[in-house]
Amino acid sequence: MITRISEIIHEWTGWCPNRNAMNAKNCGNTTFSLGADSLQVKNPGPSGTDGSGTPWEGRYEHTQRGTLILCAVSAAIILILALAYIFGPEWVALIVAGILIVVLAIMTTLTVTIREGLLRIRFGPVGLIRKSWPVSEIAMVKTVTNSWYYGWGIRITPYGPLYNVSGYEAVEVQLFSGKTFRIGTDEPEALKAAIEKARTEKKDLSRSMGPQ
Which of 11, 16, 98, 135 is the most exposed place for a label (fewest CB within 10 A)? Predict the structure, then answer.
């Protein structure tokens, strides 16, 4: 039961409350590989990679925190509540505080995963905003640097939608349909390599299965 609670908390926040349960599931920055006979521990490295920075078996998961968004929104909420306490509550201020609390819940982290042939993104620990794309539909991926005025959150850019919570680094994904989008990340090379590896493994699997 404790292990399951730890898994749920880690899935939502990226924080591992029970590191003693790590021998059962991946938690924190240590990656585990389930072999044919036993559990094998990989060396610690960047999230979603082994110790050398190489994506592990086409599976990837990394959560980036929007520290500036978190601090700015939290400070604004504290200020509004302090003013409401000193001068009395105003319904407009309380509505604004409520909106900011929602922003904290859904936009302060961005989790990217690659698993079961899908590239997925999820905003915030609540995960109300999420998207996914089959890796088989990805034609090309490259690392890019966004312009500062593209901002954070979900933005429309000349290169398609941008999903970002912090910084300017991202990977740009082009689909076979011609559509493109960008995913903000603080480890662009690792994410690019993980997507490319997942694409290769999907192609190899399709070839091995042959025509149906």
Answer: 98
